[in-house]
Amino acid sequence: MAAQPNPLDVSIQFEPRTIVIGFRHNFQADQYLLLMKGNRFVDVMDLGVKLVSDRSVSMRLPSRVTEIVSSASSCGFYLCFSDEDLASQWQRALLLWKFREGSRSKLYVDRNIDDGQLNKMLRISKPRPRRDYEDPGPAITSVRPYGH
């Protein structure tokens, strides 16, 4: 699969332990947040999912994420979970995550996923991007004198 011109942004913060996923479009971040807010796993794990900018969603990392490893073959890095069961639940519930080949406890975000696949995963059938403020330019009016 060819890489997208703009891969998804993913960053880790250590205080508090959170991961931030930056989407290409506002509507993708909005939909991911909506799906995560209605997700039982997210509620039980108390991940505190929230929108942190127009295009970015953050969530807490559980203490059972024991290591974060840099990796070019895993789109930048991957998370190591202390148990395979939690890793499997995380992968199913949080949608964007893939297992590293040959592992059931190491996950990464496919940052190069194309928009069609991402929108399908997020259950977006027709993307409706929110427009950021655009200057409409000068108003053009047609004024006719009264009675003409």
Descriptive overview:
By secondary structure, the protein is of the alpha+beta class. The chain contains 4 helices and 8 strands; from the N terminus they run E-E-H-H-E-E-E-E-H-E-E-H. 20% of the residues are buried.
Quickly list its features:
four-stranded antiparallel beta sheet, alpha+beta, 4 helices, 148 residues, 24% helix, globular
Shape: globular
Structural class: alpha+beta
Query: What is the oligomeric state here?
Result: single chain
Radius of gyration over all CA atoms, rounded: 20 Å
Q: How far apart lie the N and C ends?
A: 64 Å
**What do the pLDDT scores average to?**
85
Q: What percent of residues adopt helix (DSSP H or I)?
A: 10-25%
Instruction: Give the count of helical stretches.
Output: 4
* Percentage of residues in DSSP E strands: 25-35%
Strand order of the largest sheet: 1-2-4-3
What is the β-strand count?
Answer: 8
Topology, please?
Elements: E1 9-14, E2 17-22, H1 26-37, H2 40-45, E3 50-53, E4 56-60, E5 65-71, E6 76-81, H3 84-93, E7 97-99, E8 106-109, H4 115-121
Antiparallel strand pairs: 1-2, 2-4, 3-4, 5-6, 6-8, 7-8
